[in-house]
Design goal:
By secondary structure, this protein is an alpha/beta fold. The chain has a single domain, classed as Rossmann fold, CATH 3.40.50. Helices cover about 40% and strands about 15% of the residues. It is built from eleven helices and seven strands. It has a seven-stranded mixed β-sheet, sandwiched between helices. The longest helix has 21 residues. The protein is globular and about 50 Å long. About 40% of the residues are buried. The model has no long low-confidence stretch (mean pLDDT about 90).
Length: about 280
């Protein structure tokens, strides 16, 4: 995105979290406190009004999502699983000694805001496009800032990650770090994805990345399920097309070029969750 409009995808994901909170079985999947925190953030940032919040948290909206599940089977509930996956990786890495968390393309994610008080000796950094980051910063200020939560408004399509972090006073190149790229990589050009992984390998002495990605079909296009053509067309029309995907068996060779190695023992599963796969890499 080259304009200052907030991300439609970030907004959609946040609303999905609210609706998922109305499904009783999702209470055991979603991270504790994420639904209420997301609601507070959307209202505080003025991204949405109270009426829309009530509608998103209604049983009717649950039924609507279920009715459209044919388009991307399992993806509605997959949002809960990927949030849980990323937060679990962050908690486990902190337990292993990490003192920095970097979330790329954070959107309206509330993990940093929720975990910062629980881990006062860990610095949480979030980078996102200014259009979304400015709204979020306004919301976080109203909700209550955290001294160890650092919001960075930058377009990584315009500036390299290395340059962005060089201007961040609190960033420590020697600190063990976990980087999160949730629902981000499919919106980047292939060369940008490769460059991003390469840069991530140089921003801390010891680190890992938890990420999600879209697999590639036999015809070379991103695989969005049985209605791929329709989904890709809708994404393009909305102005946020999918640009990168990779076959699971080709992920290892792709990452080897960027010095990262798949941590098979750390991954929840290589199976598909909705239309996405989860990944963890170390160096």
């Amino acid at each position: 995105m080259k304009d200052l409009k907030p991300s439609k995808t970030a907004y959609k994901v946040a609303l999905n979290i609210l609706t998922l909170g109305e499904k009783p079985e999702m209470a055991e999947v979603l991270p504790p406190g994420i639904v209420d925190a997301t609601e507070k953030l959307l209202i505080a940032s003025e991204a949405i009004g109270a009426k829309s919040i009530r509608w998103s948290r209604s049983s009717w909206m649950v039924l609507i999502y279920k009715a459209f599940d044919w388009m991307m089977p399992g993806q509605f509930e997959a949002f809960a699983h990927r949030k849980a996956f990323c937060e679990r990786q962050v908690r486990e890495t902190i337990a292993a000694g990490a003192t920095q968390v970097l979330v790329l393309g954070a959107g309206y994610d509330t993990m940093g805001w929720r975990l910062a008080p629980e881990f006062p000796n860990v610095d949480f950094f979030e980078i996102d496009h200014p259009g979304t980051a400015s709204l979020k910063a306004k919301g976080i200020e109203k909700m209550g800032s955290r001294s160890n939560l650092h919001l960075i408004a930058e377009d990584l399509g315009e500036r390299k990650l290395l340059d962005v972090l060089a201007d961040v006073e609190n960033w420590d190149l020697s600190a063990p770090t976990i980087i999160v790229a949730e629902g981000l990589l499919q919106y980047l050009l292939p060369e940008t994805v490769r460059d991003l992984f390469t840069q991530c390998a140089t921003i801390s002495a010891e680190s890992r990345i938890a990420f999600t990605y879209i697999p590639t079909r036999q015809d070379g296009r991103p695989d969005a399920g049985p209605w791929t053509e329709l989904v890709l067309w809708l994404l393009k029309v909305c102005g946020e097309p999918w640009l990168w995907s990779v076959r699971p068996e080709e992920l290892g060779p792709f990452l080897k070029e960027t010095t990262w190695t798949i941590a098979h023992d750390e991954m929840d599963s290589l199976d598909r969750c909705g239309v996405e796969f989860f990944g963890v890499v170390t160096k």
